[in-house]
Design a protein that fits this description.
The complex is a heterodimer of chains A (241) and B (238). By secondary structure, chain A is an alpha+beta fold. Chain A contains four helices and eleven strands; from the N terminus they run E-H-E-E-H-E-E-H-E-E-H-E-E-E-E. Chain A has a domain at 83-221: Sulfite Oxidase, Chain A, domain 2. The chains are: A alpha+beta (241), B mainly alpha (238).
């Protein structure tokens, strides 16, 4: 194609084109090898002991939590916070933080794996195993699944009863080195170690026992309902974990 | 800066200013700028923790980010691919081609030496680099953003890699855009030309000597300004 203006100097090397192609090459290499580079960055940063809202969270591939919230703002913790367990149960529960803390707790160290590819290794979690809460409430006939509601009910999640009964599924009130922070879904969030992070609903307000699985928030946008790490959402085989 | 005081001899001489950017180029520039600003703002609201908390509404913000991202190349493409794009196509060609003076200009700029004495065409080496960088950014961000959005079609490792590149190039983009805006506000006449399209001859004589010579042969004459003999002849007799 010739668009040359008659007055246009025709000489000169096409440096601009080389810059563009150079960037494309770098970008393509980054897509192919970026996950290992990002891994290396992550290791380097974790040796610096990155934590909380440190700068590591802003470094690409920095191996720290990307914070997501689907409603405006992170909610503040109400003084009189109570976790509600209701639906198809024999004894509906309302548990304050002190009551949750008094129940038998489980502490585990497990990674947090986001479906978008980032992951944080060796996160400390402490909370009440969800199955203890279910035992405490007692299941009524017809119970097959659970619905979880975030503070304002906009974000929801789901688990089957079998998934919820896995021993390491926690109603967590401690995460990292202290109480679950506001950004991370405090005071109480769910943690489902074997599933992608969107299952680990933040700002957990209510657990409702129901007779069938109702897909959660992101699941309405196409994410897998059964969000097993490495075995769902287009991933197959070993996955990242 | 070569702003011309009204009533000065230069102003009188420059009656009838030179067209630097036609309407097509100006509209393309501002629509592209609008897209980039929206993308940077929504990208920040998806990525920076403090803003994530402030804005929230992840689905809506993601939707805007993706839609505007897909629209990003349209102003440029529509402007280029048509009979109306003649001047813009010529500009793209100018931005692509580097003459030896451009290397010299860049060498001096990097050493923070004055560049005024290096004859430049319609665009200097910095402007050429900026244009190439922005075009490269557009393509890389579209590619990696597509992998992120249609992740089901790509491997796990590519998705992570694409996210890594997208984040990294976003930082580069913000740095270059800030540089671009800084250069614009510190060069008011050049800035004005992306609104009005026109520059004075005094400006062209100072910032785009070879271009001025090209569009108006014989009009480039500033005694003592050029330390280096330019490639073409100089009319030294005005």
């Amino acid at each position: 194609m010739k668009f040359v203006d008659a007055r246009e100097p025709s000489g000169g090397k096409p440096v601009g084109r080389r810059v563009v192609f150079g960037m494309l090459g770098l970008g393509a290499a980054g897509v192919v090898f970026g996950s290992s580079v990002s891994r290396a960055v992550q290791d380097a940063l974790s040796s610096l002991g990155s934590n909380g809202s440190s700068i590591a969270g802003l470094v690409p591939g920095g191996g720290y939590f990307q914070l997501y919230t689907v409603t405006g703002g992170y909610p503040t913790t109400p003084e009189d916070y109570q976790l509600v367990v209701d639906g198809l149960v024999e004894r509906p529960l309302k548990l304050g933080l002190a009551e949750l803390g008094a129940l038998p707790a489980l502490s585990i160290v497990r990674p947090f794996q986001c479906v978008t590819g980032w992951r944080v290794d060796s996160v400390h979690w402490t909370g009440v195993p969800l199955r203890h809460l279910l035992d405490l409430a007692g299941l009524a006939p017809g119970a097959t699944a659970l619905r979880f509601f975030s503070f304002d009910g906009v974000y929801t999640e789901s688990l089957t009863l079998d998934q919820a009964r896995l021993p390491d599924v926690l109603v967590a009130y401690k995460m990292l080195d202290g109480p679950v922070s506001r950004e991370h879904g405090g005071p109480v969030r769910l943690y489902v170690p074997e599933m992608y992070g969107y299952k680990s609903i933040k700002w957990l307000q209510r657990i409702s026992v129901v007779d069938k699985v109702v897909p959660g928030y992101w699941e309405d946008y196409g994410y897998a309902v059964n969000a097993w790490i490495g075995r769902s959402n287009g991933y197959n085989g070993a996955g990242i974990s | 800066m070569a702003t011309t005081a009204p009533g000065s001899p230069e102003a009188a001489q420059s009656a009838g200013r030179l067209l630097r950017f036609d309407a097509v180029a100006r509209v393309a520039h501002w629509l592209t700028a609008l897209c980039f600003i929206t993308l940077i703002a929504t990208g920040a609201a998806l990525y920076i923790p403090a803003l994530v908390g402030l804005v929230g509404r992840r689905v809506l913000v993601t939707r805007i980010h993706v839609d505007v991202g897909l629209a990003l190349p349209l102003p440029l493409l529509v402007s280029l691919l048509g009979p109306w794009g003649r001047a813009l196509r010529a500009d793209i060609r100018r931005l692509n081609r580097w003459i030896p003076e451009d290397r010299e200009w860049l060498r001096r700029a990097r050493r923070r030496q004055p560049t005024a004495s290096v004859p430049t065409g319609k665009f200097n080496a910095g402007q050429k680099l900026n244009a190439a960088f922005v075009l490269g950014e557009m393509v890389v961000m579209l590619m990696t953003g597509s992998v992120m959005h249609w992740f089901n079609f790509f491997s796990n490792s590519w998705r992570t890699g694409a996210t890594f590149v997208h984040d990294l190039f976003a930082y580069l983009l913000v740095a270059v855009v800030l540089g671009h805006v800084f250069m614009a506000v510190t060069h008011p006449e050049a800035l004005r030309s992306i609104f009005t399209g026109r520059v004075s001859r005094a400006w062209a004589r100072r910032h785009a000597q070879l271009w001025l010579e090209e569009v108006e042969p014989g009009s480039r004459e500033v005694p003592g300004l050029l330390s280096k003999e330019p490639a073409s002849g100089v009319d030294a007799s005005r």
